[in-house]
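Project outcomes to date are best conveyed with an example. Our students and postdoctoral researchers have been running inverse folding experiments weekly, and each run begins with a structure described purely in tokens. The record below, which covers 340 residues, was selected by the lab manager from last quarter's runs and is presented without edits.
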């Protein structure tokens, strides 16, 4: 007689507790899998396993913490969002969110030695593949999915992009080339978007018999207005970096001047490096602000209400970094922030 495995149902509270334990283990492994800072000359960048579908590196930030770069790394399909890529991206975003919230909670609770800005301070999402940021959904995979599987995939896609948009730290998309459909929706989920001269973006869904399904129809009008969003979504046309910058879809343009840059092919590695360099410059500029001020400022902007600004300002008033900035101004020197 074959043995049977009995599965006992668990309560939502038990599931939540188990999942938080899982996140804690991932954070511990991630934080302890690097060399110690003193073993890294100049606090150089720390790199994770680059053979994975996501290439992840940490770069030291001013004062403390690091700038994390998640580069999509699926060259065979131009970084199309497959189930595997989405699963890995979802895990990484949840890990960052958990670590950020845990750090903020420890500081709010007054735990001994707790400081802000010790972990990921800015997240950059980019590409490790020349000639592509993200081609959108993996249509070759999608064609074999049932309606139920497609709905499940879309639910996870929406949740992941929502989690990116709601991260407590600033986020940047470094878009060196094509961002189509879901790829553009991924870029829209971040706070900032950096394009280069050869970047092309589009929502081609209506030409495929569908519509944008991961809040593209919501976030795009919020950025560029109803009419311009309707133009892009209903026609499905591609636009270049200059038009995207003009209508407010991208925030910065990384150009290569005086080197024949405009003649370089779209898959030239220089574009990807140049866009990432601009993203790193922006992230570094953000991290020069006090760790305890940058995140409250982002929350106040997202709240877009007087109440949100008043609440967040009240938090920074009690921070020693605020006093340090005032003293540094009086002494005509650069402040040294500690995240307290």
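After processing, the design step wrote out the following sequence:
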């Amino acid at each position: 007689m074959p043995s049977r495995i009995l599965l006992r149902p668990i309560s939502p509270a038990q599931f939540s507790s188990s999942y938080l334990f899982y996140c804690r283990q991932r954070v511990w492994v991630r934080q302890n899998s690097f060399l110690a800072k003193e073993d890294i000359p100049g606090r150089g960048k720390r790199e994770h396993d680059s053979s994975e579908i996501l290439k992840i590196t940490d770069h030291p930030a001013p004062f403390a913490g690091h700038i994390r770069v998640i580069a999509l790394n699926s060259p065979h399909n131009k970084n199309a969002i497959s189930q595997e890529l989405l699963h890995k991206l979802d895990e990484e975003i949840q890990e960052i969110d958990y670590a950020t919230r845990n750090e903020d909670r420890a500081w709010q609770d007054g735990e001994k030695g707790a400081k802000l800005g010790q972990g990921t301070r800015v997240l950059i999402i980019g590409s490790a593949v020349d000639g592509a940021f993200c081609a959108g959904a993996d249509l070759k995979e999608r064609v074999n999915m049932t309606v139920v599987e497609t709905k499940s995939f879309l639910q996870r896609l929406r949740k992941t992009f929502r989690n990116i948009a709601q991260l407590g730290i600033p986020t940047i998309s470094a878009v060196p080339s094509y961002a189509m459909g879901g790829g553009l929706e991924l870029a829209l989920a971040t706070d900032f978007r950096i394009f280069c001269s050869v970047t092309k973006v589009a929502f081609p869904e209506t030409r495929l018999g569908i519509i944008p399904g991961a809040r593209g129809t919501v976030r795009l009008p919020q950025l560029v207005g109803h009419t311009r969003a309707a133009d892009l979504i209903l026609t499905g046309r591609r636009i270049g970096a200059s038009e995207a910058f003009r209508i407010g879809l991208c925030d910065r343009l990384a150009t290569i001047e005086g080197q024949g840059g405009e003649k370089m092919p779209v898959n030239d590695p220089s574009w990807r490096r140049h866009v990432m360099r601009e993203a790193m410059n922006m992230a570094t500029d953000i991290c020069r602000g006090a760790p305890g001020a940058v995140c409250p400022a982002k929350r106040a902007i997202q709240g877009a209400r007087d109440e949100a600004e008043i609440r967040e300002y009240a938090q920074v008033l009690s921070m020693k970094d605020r006093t340090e900035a005032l003293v540094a101004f009086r002494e005509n020197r650069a402040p040294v922030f500690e995240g307290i």
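The first strand starts at residue 46 and ends at 47. DSSP finds twelve helices and eleven strands in the chain. The training component of this project remains on track.
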